[in-house]
Amino acid sequence: MPDERISRNKRKIINDPVYGFISVPSDLIFDLIEHPYFQRLRRIRQLGLTFYVYPAANHTRFQHALGAMHLMNSALDVIERKGSSLSLEERQGAIAAILLPDIGHGPFSHALEHSIVEGLDHEILSELYMQALNKQFNGLLEDAIHIFGNEYPRLFLHQLVSSQLDMDRLDYLNRDSFFTGVTEGVVGSERIIKMLRVVNDQLVVDRKGIYSIEKFLISRRLMYWQVYLHKTVVAAEQMLVHSLKRARELALNGEKIFATPALSEFLLPGKLSENPLSDTNRLLECYAQLDDNDIFTVLKAWSNHPDKILSMLSAGLLNRKLLAIRITKTPSDPNLLESMRKTLVRHHGFSPEEAKYLVFADRVSNSAYTGDDDQIFFYDNSGQLLSLSETSDIVNVPLLSTSDSKYFICYPKWLFSEGAGNNPEQRVV
């Protein structure tokens, strides 16, 4: 029989700046939160390098995961009150499934998604961690893993974890809005949750919640362009990606590159950097030691490296001396890109390969609603299920469903002569 004193001690109350007091719903969830894999999320920023634009955006994946846990608990309460019974195991599985998907995130979250462990995104790593935790917790996470992977018979539980209207999105919009101060991201999460119900094993919204859903979708679209894909954030994150790329290239060429013990496993030539899945246990243990602090540590060392590209990019990130960035609705002119690189080579002493690290182009995309394969449905008083396009007279569903892309070109501000204007075409030396 479990010690009741221990059990009571695990029912912690946490003071969250977004929702007020939230509680840990079970002993298992408390033990998962206490695990080193999860505690690491305290050292992973939720919004990567967004603090370069919004100085207060230093909140963590740990805070976000706890917020999503709280919203999931509230949503399950509402669904049960509306007639969909849940076992204690199902509730616990759903809460664990929303709590754990972030444990596979690397330093600075999405900023380095494919730069540290090549070929493995955070969802795959999270699933590997969940499998490892399931072994440690003697199979108690089986339901959570099946819910996370959309393999559990009650499909609405997966929708609460990952869908157009999951608890993850509801939390990050409000939380990111709170810490950035961008009020456009505020959504009525409490009202949206009150409007949820399950019909034919599908998560739907009561029709009277349509206005809250419209606000939710519009807020998400605005937050992407105003926060997540802000041009200065894009420039900073691209510099970080190129810093690691340059360090890895130098290491492969035999140059000495400083790295923390955990980062060296993935950055320097070796078994894990070449084939991370060759030793899953080692992959998980080494990756669990990585956080934002590793990256700041190596950037400080690299800022004094003899390689001028690595030192420039690293010092620029440390001191917020970022590359200039130009955003357009059409792809960058390849001739302009080549002309800017040639200027670096002819007048600033860089090699053609080095120039590619300082002048480059790509694109970013934002889709607020993928209505084709994952729609939001509304429950009418007559018992009908209506799609968003049938319910809303405000939201342009085809427009929201279209991936909105913007193109960017990054380049050093000092590449051009002073006082020559803001248009790069007019300023190339």
Plain-language structure description:
By secondary structure, the protein is an alpha+beta fold. It has helices spanning 4-10, 27-34, 36-39, 61-81, 88-99, 122-136, 142-148, 155-161, 167-180, 189-194, 210-228, 231-252, 261-267, 271-274, 280-287, 292-302, 308-318, 334-348, 352-358, 388-391, 397-401, and strands at 13-16, 20-23, 196-199, 202-206, 324-328, 360-366, 377-379, 385-387, 404-411. The protein has 2 domains: 4-229 and 370-400, Hypothetical protein af1432; 231-365 and 407-426, Growth Hormone, Chain: A. It contains 21 helices and 9 strands. Strand 1 and strand 2 form a beta hairpin. Helix 16 packs across helix 17 (308-318). The chain is globular and about 70 Å long. The relative contact order is 0.10.
Keywords:
429 residues, alpha+beta, Hypothetical protein af1432, Growth Hormone, Chain: A, 2 domains, four-stranded mixed sheet, three-stranded antiparallel sheet, 21 helices, disordered C terminus
Question: What is the topology?
Answer:
Blueprint: H1 4-10, E1 13-16, E2 20-23, H2 27-34, H3 36-39, H4 61-81, H5 88-99, H6 122-136, H7 142-148, H8 155-161, H9 167-180, H10 189-194, E3 196-199, E4 202-206, H11 210-228, H12 231-252, H13 261-267, H14 271-274, H15 280-287, H16 292-302, H17 308-318, E5 324-328, H18 334-348, H19 352-358, E6 360-366, E7 377-379, E8 385-387, H20 388-391, H21 397-401, E9 404-411
Parallel strand pairs: 4-7
Antiparallel strand pairs: 1-2, 3-4, 5-9, 6-9, 7-8
Helix pairs in contact: 2-5, 4-5, 4-9, 5-7, 9-11, 12-17, 16-17, 18-19
